[in-house]
């Protein structure tokens, strides 16, 4: 007799565990990735010159193969951007990729506006083609970043669920996977400044050699 209640509890826990697992699976139907148009160092950090206005970060989305099926592309999304050290790296203007497909929805944005840049960034979209993000990743938007001071900083894409789900597909599956949605940047001195530093170092080395020769 005592065993039955225990088995009943275990069955309930197992059932709840299955529901939780299903929730987790549902909460990551879109893979979110990032890339930039700058060279990388040996540590995989994108190199940006101080005050370089041409550094661009692209945010991508792709429906996971396990849930990808005809007509179940990305319907809408709402994500944030965060900079680990705003004194080193700054987010500038953003551009929706393929603006004729992605649609700003200011009315449903958690900020009340279509975009609000700074340490946080919010972007919303409306109805799109039902095949977007199926079979290959699709660009969501690009942002320009500028180096403010020498050092390292990371840009991270994060879910914004204030106004609903961060990602929704056409079959109403929701959630994004952000495991590969952050990127480190290394801000370096401006090329001219770096050149002067190298010239100065070369002059010092020449001076040391002359002193040794004397």
Can you put this structure into words, describing what you see?
- This protein is of the alpha+beta class.
- The protein has helices at residues 3-26, 191-213, and strands spanning 30-36, 46-49, 55-63, 74-83, 89-96, 120-124, 138-147, 151-159, 167-169, 176-180, 182-188.
- Strands 2, 4, 6, 8, 9 and 11 form a 6-stranded mixed sheet that branches.
- The protein is elongated.
List the helices and strands and how they pair.
Blueprint: H1 3-26, E1 30-36, E2 46-49, E3 55-63, E4 74-83, E5 89-96, E6 120-124, E7 138-147, E8 151-159, E9 167-169, E10 176-180, E11 182-188, H2 191-213
Parallel strand pairs: 1-10, 2-11
Antiparallel strand pairs: 1-3, 3-7, 4-6, 4-8, 4-9, 5-7, 8-11
Short description:
The chain is of the alpha+beta class.
Notable characteristics:
about 210 residues; alpha+beta; Immunoglobulin-like; 5-stranded mixed beta sheet; about 35% strand; disordered N terminus
Number of helical segments? 2
Rounded to the nearest angstrom, the radius of gyration is: 24 Å
Number of strands: 11
CATH class: Mainly Beta
Which quaternary structure do these chains form?
single chain
**How many domains, in number, for the residues?**
1
Summarize the helix and strand pattern as letters.
Answer: HEEEEEEEEEEEH
> Largest sheet at a glance?
6 strands, mixed
The CATH level-2 architecture is identified as Sandwich
Label the structural class.
alpha+beta
- The CATH topology is Immunoglobulin-like
Q: State mean pLDDT (0 to 100 scale).
A: 76
Measured distance between first and last alpha carbons: 99 Å
Principal-axis shape equals: elongated
Q: Give the proportion of residues in helices.
A: 10-25%
Unreliable spans: 1-25, 192-199
């Amino acid at each position: 007799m005592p065993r039955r209640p225990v088995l009943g509890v275990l069955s309930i826990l197992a059932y709840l565990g299955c529901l939780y697992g299903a929730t987790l699976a549902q909460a990551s139907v879109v893979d979110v990735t990032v890339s930039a148009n700058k060279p990388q160092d040996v540590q995989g950090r994108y190199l940006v010159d101080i005050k370089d206005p041409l550094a661009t970060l692209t945010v991508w989305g792709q429906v996971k193969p396990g849930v990808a099926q005809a007509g179940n592309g990305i319907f809408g999304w709402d994500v944030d951007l965060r900079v680990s050290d705003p004194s080193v790296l700054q987010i500038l203007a953003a551009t929706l990729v393929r603006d004729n497909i992605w649609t700003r929805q200011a009315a449903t944005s958690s900020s009340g506006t279509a975009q609000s840049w700074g340490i946080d960034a919010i972007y919303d979209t409306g109805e799109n083609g039902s095949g977007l993000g199926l079979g290959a990743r699709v660009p969501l938007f690009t942002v320009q970043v500028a180096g403010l001071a020498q050092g390292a900083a990371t840009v991270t894409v994060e879910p914004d669920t204030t106004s609903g789900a961060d990602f929704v597909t056409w079959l109403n599956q929701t959630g994004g996977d952000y495991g590969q949605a952050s990127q480190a940047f290394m801000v370096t001195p401006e090329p001219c400044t770096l050149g002067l530093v190298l010239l100065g170092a070369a002059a010092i080395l020449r001076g040391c050699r002359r002193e040794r020769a004397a």
